[in-house]
Design brief:
This protein has one domain: Alpha-Beta Barrel (TIM Barrel), CATH 3.20.20. Strands 3-4-5-6-7-8-9-10 form an eight-stranded parallel beta sheet. It has a two-stranded antiparallel ribbon with strand order 1-2. A hairpin with a 5-residue loop joins strand 1 and strand 2. The protein is an alpha/beta fold. Helices cover 40% and strands 15% of the residues. 47% of the residues are buried. The termini are far apart. It is built from ten helices and ten strands. Helix 2 crosses helix 3, helix 3 crosses helix 4 and helix 7 crosses helix 8.
């Protein structure tokens, strides 16, 4: 990966950019429109949203404006959304997908994910995703926040394996066993909250490594993600930060530095535990 638009092939051959823009907790309206438009203008080709973020309409407008400004086609973008827990179930998931598509103003999605492994709900939802995939409404399907046992349970009855598992991943939560399991099964791991919601930015080890390369701590973490083979989607609404987050292709961390950063692991989450959530 040497460029912001470099991609990785998912198990079905679909190419997904290594780096994208996340819009979790970005308010709908002008804020998210501007964030998405700015990212596309500055070379981003992957945008990640979700029904529960309640900003798909603004994301869609940002996509429209970004495409016009960058002079590129819809096919050059990779757009992800996710089905929320209350819409899990075969018919409900199909309907939720159409709602997301309509809000985004798109004819298809590149990736659709089950947002959380809600017990007794996700298998029927997965069947719906397989239907959407077979019908050409989405280029790739996957899950988010699935632990190994969730994946094993899903794959017992599934016609196809998830192509993506998007999980919390950062130097304090390295998910070694889960990543190994996904790799064995051809499931690409993607990171949410790669910067641990800003809680790592004053870490002394990361600051030392950042100073060596004349980079920010955020850039070092994003680079660490990518060198671990993990797709990542840092969030920002500020143009200079959006540009900075993508400026990670002109340096490489050493093997020793990669291991030092991995050594920060404490199995510490900033988000909910996939085995113990109540929503």
């Amino acid at each position: 990966m040497k460029h912001l638009q470099d991609t990785v092939a998912l198990s079905n051959g679909v190419q997904m950019p290594w780096l994208g823009l996340g819009v979790f907790q970005v308010e709908d309206g002008s804020t998210v429109v501007e964030s998405v438009r700015t990212a596309i203008k500055n070379g981003y080709r992957s945008i990640d949203t979700a029904a529960i973020y309640q900003n798909e309409t603004g994301v869609g407008q940002g996509i429209k404006e970004g495409l016009a400004e960058a002079g590129i086609s819809r096919e050059e973008l990779f757009i992800t959304s996710k089905v929320w827990n209350e819409d899990l179930g075969y018919e409900k998931t199909l309907a939720a997908f159409e709602t997301s598509l309509e809000k985004l103003g798109l004819d298809y999605l590149d990736l659709y994910l089950i947002h959380w492994p809600k017990a007794n709900k996700y298998k029927e939802a997965w069947r719906a995703l397989e239907t959407l995939y077979k019908n050409g409404k989405v280029k790739a399907i996957g899950v988010s926040n699935f632990q190994i046992h969730h994946l094993e349970e899903l794959m017992k009855d599934a016609e196809m394996k998830p192509m993506i598992n998007q999980v919390e991943f950062h130097p304090k939560l390295t998910q070694v066993e889960l990543r190994s399991f996904c790799q064995q099964h051809g499931i690409q791991v993607e990171a949410w909250s790669p910067l641990m919601q800003g809680k790592l930015l004053d870490n002394s080890l990361l600051m030392t490594i950042a100073a060596k390369y004349n980079k920010s701590v955020a850039q070092v973490i994003i680079r660490w993600d990518l060198q671990n083979g993990v797709i990542t989607i840092p969030k920002s609404i500020k143009e200079h930060r959006i540009i900075e987050n993508a400026d990670v292709f002109d340096f490489s961390l050493t093997t020793e530095e990669m291991e030092q950063i991995a050594g920060l692991n404490e199995d510490l989450r900033v988000g909910p535990d996939p085995d113990n959530f109540d929503f």
